[in-house]
Amino acid sequence: MSTPPIRVAVLEDDDALREEILLPALSDYGFSTQGAASAADLYRHMLSQQFDMVVLDIGLPDEDGLTVARHLRTMSDIGIVMLTGSTDRQHQIQALHSGADGYLIKPIDLDVLAAALHSLARRMAPFPQGMVADQAPTPRWRLEADGWRLVSPRGKIVALTAIEQCVLTTLTSASDEPVSRESLIQALNHNRYDSDPHSLEMIIHRLRRKVHTQTKEMLPLLTVRNKGYMLPGDAWHKPTMAVG
Fold first, then answer.
1. pTM, whole model, 2 decimals?
2. With 176 labelled, which of 38, 106, 195, 239 sits at a CA distance of 20 to 30 A?
3. Nearest to 54, CA basis, from 21, 35, 81, 83
């Protein structure tokens, strides 16, 4: 069963940053997004919509972000990640004291922002019914959130773009068998991404490099000569499908 996308409200008064960068990028990472230009806009959206977390700029035209964070924290356990252009350490302390779960400095690295949101969502999610922490599966690489979140054996989280999600979900569905380049290209084209053998190799190269940069672990994505690519089953957690 697929899980609903993580719902994120983005409160940022810079229209270009919000509409042209943050919202499209987070959508490409699999989040369901809603923008707001002011605290009043955010509160109006919250009357008719539910959100799992808020990306919140500290500097706002009406109500400052610290006040918004304190207000949101008194209302619910919603996740809060704050953004600021200031490197002042005191701002970070104030943000965390105001109820923020995370704090990022502009210019924002979109990979880091997406990973921070996935990490926060994972911390907020309860263990499945009947499971306790010491019963968790043996650490392996795993895909979560319908393939939008890659988790390393050490618990490091990598947020995936739509292209990366398509590649890894296609490979994990192959049950420890090689997937041909042609099949991967077909999957990418089916998801409206033009591809060819050369661009596919670049996608794989960038994915391996991205994962290593963010986790300091090597992604077990193997090239099989004259066949394609595969994920070795002993390195990946394969979720069991419920029957009934």
1. 0.77
2. 195
3. 81
- The three-state DSSP-derived secondary structure of the chain is CCCCCCEEEEECCCHHHHHHHHHHHHHHCCCEEEEECCHHHHHHHHHHCCCCEEEEECCCCCCCHHHHHHHHHHHCCCEEEEEECCCCHHHHHHHHHCCCCEEEECCCCHHHHHHHHHHHHHHHCCCCCCCCHHHCCCCCEEEEHHHCEEECCCCCEEECCHHHHHHHHHHHCCCCCCECHHHHHHHHHHCCCCCCHHHHHHHHHHHHHHHHHHHCCCCCCEEECCCEEECCHHHECCCCCCCC
